[in-house]
Amino acid sequence: MIRATRMKRTEARRRLVIVGNGMATESLISRLGTDHGWSVRVLGEEPVRHYNRIMLSPLLGEETDLDAITPRDDAWYRARRVTVSLGKRVARLDRQRRCLYCDDGERVDYDTLVIATGARSSMPPLSGVAELDGVSGFRSLHDVERLRGWSRARPGVRAVVVGAGLLGVEAAVGLRRLGADVTLVHRRPVLMNRQLDASASSLLEAALAARGIRVRTGCDPKRLLGDTSVSAVAVEEGGAPRTLPADLVVFATGITPNRELAQTAGLECGAGVRVDSALRTSDPHVHALGECCEFQGNTYGLVAPVQEQADVLARVLRGQRARYRDPSLVTRLKVSGLDIHSMGQVEAVAGQQTLWLSDPQAGVYKKLIIEDGRLRGVLLVGDVRHSQWYFQTHQSDRDVSALRDVLLTDPSRDDDESTPADVSVEVA
Prior knowledge:
The chain is α/β, with parallel strands linked by helices. Helices cover 23% and strands 30% of the residues.
């Protein structure tokens, strides 16, 4: 009698199917908890369990291993009534029948579907990219294994990393740790130009140079050269053509949301799978979150918004009222012991003030953008002790006018302190 009752309850559970086994899925399952009313199945295309993609750079540089960056074991999933199917590629979504068809022929039925298929590296339409060996992105365990293989096969391999955003900087550092001869190429004059200004970029460039990484800014790749394998990158630098020798080229020039499963099923898509504030797609039985989704014209490649989306969707799936809005973001990077934190605006606009502190010898640079007494942007290099205070103040929209004299030195205190370098104020 007891056994029969338990079986009926299990069968009565609603079927939640999640396509994708990355950070978004792990965050959603974590926030869904252990007392939800779902029978959950995860379909992951990669043959390995979820790993922390943020740690790909130290994994590439052999500072860690796969076990160390795989945060969840089988017991964790069992406690949450989650079944994970690895190496399971979904070929087609049938929204009318509410089912998925996999490459191996299995049909998977759902009551509610979550598409969390992530994103892939954007490969620019340059001559040689698709034709030559020795070309890679930097987004997955497969990319790491391939880059490791090339580096081990040819000690001192000449690597050109194209794109000096956050991912490109991390790829360059990881390859350098493997002993590669690395050149980091960026079209813009400022590294990580979405998060840094020229002063912060110069400190980052110095830290990379100290690691033995050559940095070329204002350098625009035009095509890849070689017969069957890449041998060089043709670029334009300072208005003149130039050739950079290369055995390996890694593109870190952005990401493309994996929207194809949703798009072929007729779901509304833009750059990603379009969702509303409940992370619901144009089909009320289908949600999307993470790097594959698009909300109010925005797509995502950073951790904070993905985790916020997972929190909102977990509450929605538990029958609670929740609405997503893009959170304030903090970009964090550590290169050669140099900490960099960036949040909000990078450059001031008309009517805003800029407070900055610079001590190049100590490798310290701080910049605050203020409007009507509120923080609109914070950039910290070398000294990030008060980063959390700045973040909370930025989020709360607190008036910091009374703290102006200590905002750059010790904002959590109201008393004046002498500064280790010149403090300047600029009005845009």
